[in-house]
């Protein structure tokens, strides 16, 4: 799609102002008199605000490279007037996905400031900006060719971020003034209604109030929904829903440990593992195994499904950020090609738990095979890394830390 050229953003914003005026005019006299104007102004703000666009880091797990025939343009100087403009050659199609939130139509709007040199073409798909590049195989033979492609990607991304920042500036200005504008118009409307009531009383006309005038309008917020992440689950893996269910069980048990850490002062790593297994077995009717042989060792927790894919987890006592890479590699060694959804669970007895948490992202990002680290909660990190045990396999690993310090 072509960017920032379909609509004039000033016209879009003016249209929002007109919609706001119409909305305020649709309030009945009784509604205006019976309700707090601050609440009505909040409603108007939530209904007519334009969410600015935020572009996140690349979603590495969505990246794809496809080999196929592509069309390569032939310069007029090198072809006859009867020859085709394009020739088909062997090549690749590379797709890169960047998540975004906010109003998607802003990508179609020309802001008050814009670049006359134009913008790269992209696709918008289920909450992602998709950059697509076609390259002949002959153009992708070296590390330098790869670096050129990524340099082009970075330039295109920077160009789009610059363009969307212009649009965001305009809508942020509109949003900043929206509530005050709505409140001012509501006050003007109320003043007219009060004048009407005053005139009606002067003529001794009994006013018929509806039952609605004795009640209040509930404040209803209209929140623009964000796009859902693309479901990239594959048939040979455990499902995303099952993965989330297992992680929730572990999280709830970990929170139980944290409430009464003194009760667990004397127990060791394998004991924590056994309590987690007990909770999981309560839900999986004995299907959760501990010290289970899998690939190159015995994993702490293993829940195998009918298709032989498994959830695999490793439990550790925290000994410092230096041991994180070894723990990830150990977990990786237990995985078969069917296993790509895992967990690494740390029990922390250090006094300064928050300082421990601050070191975890850096320790994870320092692992050479790590491709993505997302902070899910203060003590929870969602990671994606390339398996060494099964080259080419992308592994999801949820790293969770629980505070068991007891004075």
Oligomer classification:
single chain
Tell me the overall shape. flat
- The span between the termini is 60 Å
Structural class: alpha+beta
Written as H for each helix and E for each strand, in order along the chain, the element string is: EHHHEEEEEEHHHEEEHEHEEE
The proportion of residues in beta strands is: 15-25%
- Number of DSSP helical runs: 8
Low-confidence stretches: 207-235
User: Largest sheet, described in full?
Assistant: 7 strands, mixed
Mean pLDDT, to the nearest integer, reads 84
> Radius of gyration, rounded?
29 Å
Lateral strand order in the biggest sheet: 8-9-10-11-14-13-12
Task: Please bin the fraction of helical residues.
Answer: 25-40%
Number of domains: 2
Number of DSSP strand runs: 14
Main features:
single chain, 407 residues, alpha+beta, 2 domains, 7-stranded mixed β-sheet, 5-stranded antiparallel β-sheet, 8 helices, 14 strands, 25% strand, flat
Structure report:
The chain is of the alpha+beta class. The protein folds into 2 domains: 1-63 and 95-230, no CATH class; 240-403, no CATH class. It contains 8 helices and 14 strands. Helix 1 (9-26) runs parallel beside helix 4 (143-202), helix 3 runs antiparallel to helix 4 and helix 5 packs across helix 6 (269-284). The longest helix has 60 residues, at 143-202. The termini are far apart. The model is unreliable at 207-235 (pLDDT under 50).
Q: Nutshell version of this structure?
A:
This protein is of the alpha+beta class and 407 residues long. The chain is built from 8 helices and 14 strands. The chain has 2 domains: 1-63 and 95-230, no CATH class; 240-403, no CATH class.
């Amino acid at each position: 799609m072509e960017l920032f050229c379909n609509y004039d953003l000033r016209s879009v914003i003016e249209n929002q102002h007109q919609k706001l005026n119409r909305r305020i005019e649709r309030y009945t006299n009784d509604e205006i008199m019976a309700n707090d104007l601050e609440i009505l102004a909040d409603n108007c703000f939530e209904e007519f605000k334009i969410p600015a666009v935020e572009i996140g880091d690349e979603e590495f797990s969505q990246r794809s490279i496809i080999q196929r025939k592509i069309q390569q343009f032939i310069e007029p100087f090198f072809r006859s007037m009867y020859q085709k403009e394009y020739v088909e050659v062997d090549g690749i199609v590379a797709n890169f996905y960047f998540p975004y939130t906010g109003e998607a139509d802003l990508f179609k709007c020309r802001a008050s400031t814009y670049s006359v040199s134009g913008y790269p073409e992209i696709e918008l798909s289920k909450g992602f900006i998709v950059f697509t590049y076609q390259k002949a195989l002959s153009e992708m033979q070296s590390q330098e060719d790869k670096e050129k492609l990524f340099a082009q990607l970075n330039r295109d991304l920077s160009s789009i971020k610059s363009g969307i920042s212009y649009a965001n500036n305009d809508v942020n200005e509109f949003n900043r003034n929206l509530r005050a504008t709505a409140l001012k118009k509501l006050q003007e409307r109320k003043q007219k209604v009060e004048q009407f009531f005053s005139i009606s009383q002067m003529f001794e006309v009994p006013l018929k109030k509806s039952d609605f005038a004795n009640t209040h309008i509930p404040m209803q917020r209209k929140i623009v929904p964000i796009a859902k992440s693309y479901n990239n689950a594959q048939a040979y893996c455990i499902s995303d829903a099952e993965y989330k269910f297992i992680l929730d069980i572990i999280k709830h048990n970990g929170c139980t440990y944290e409430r009464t850490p003194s009760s667990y002062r004397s127990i060791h790593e394998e004991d924590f593992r056994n309590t987690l297994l007990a909770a999981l077995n309560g839900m999986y009717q004995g299907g959760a195994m501990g010290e289970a042989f899998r690939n190159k060792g015995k994993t702490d927790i293993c829940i195998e499904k009918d298709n032989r894919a498994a959830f695999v987890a490793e439990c550790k006592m925290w000994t410092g950020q230096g041991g994180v890479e070894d723990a990830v590699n150990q977990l990786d060694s237990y995985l078969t090609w069917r296993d790509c959804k895992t967990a690494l669970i740390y029990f922390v007895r250090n006094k300064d738990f928050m300082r421990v948490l601050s070191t975890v992202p850096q320790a994870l990002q320092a692992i050479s095979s790590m491709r993505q680290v997302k902070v899910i909660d203060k003590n929870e990190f969602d990671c994606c890394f390339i398996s060494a045990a099964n080259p080419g396999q992308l592994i999801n690993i949820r790293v969770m830390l629980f505070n068991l310090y007891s004075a």
